Amino acid sequence: MLAPDIKDKVVFIWDAGYPTNITNLENTSFNMTQDILASQLLFSSGVPLVYIPGFYIGQQLGLSQVDAKNWFKNSGPIGKTLYKRYMNNQLFTWYGKDKNDLFGQIWNIWDLINISWLLDPSSVSSHTVPSVKLTNKCYWKKMKNPHIIREGYYTNYNSIFPKFAKKLQEYEKKNNASKK
Length: 180
Known about the structure:
alpha/beta; four-stranded mixed beta sheet; two-stranded antiparallel ribbon
């Protein structure tokens, strides 16, 4: 709003809510509802937007305890942080899960999908769609004269997590080698 001229110099990649063709469900995602005005502006401003719905798409990036331990526990500071976040995830407590018995529990790392698309757009299948309006009650509504946005409609856990884990492990090896 303060610098509308930047719209031609940026591309936003953002995950939140439901796909834009789901018009009968309230978009209750954290990324969307923490600042509804900003979310509304993102879709109405005409800024180039890659929208990756959190529900159904980003949600596919679920991490199990076994994954967290094997892939991340010994994979440098970022991996260790992810492992600790899994083991002490406040959402498990919020949902009534016993943090001493996390067997079979999944933690979604929603926002990883944005970086995945940025590094490898083929990791998130997408298509172009008309932009929509986000109402004050967080429902999608068709716009008059919409601009075109890119929207993700599918991703595959296997196209993202193994690559991410390997990059963290490679970085840790390189970092340890440079310390010697």
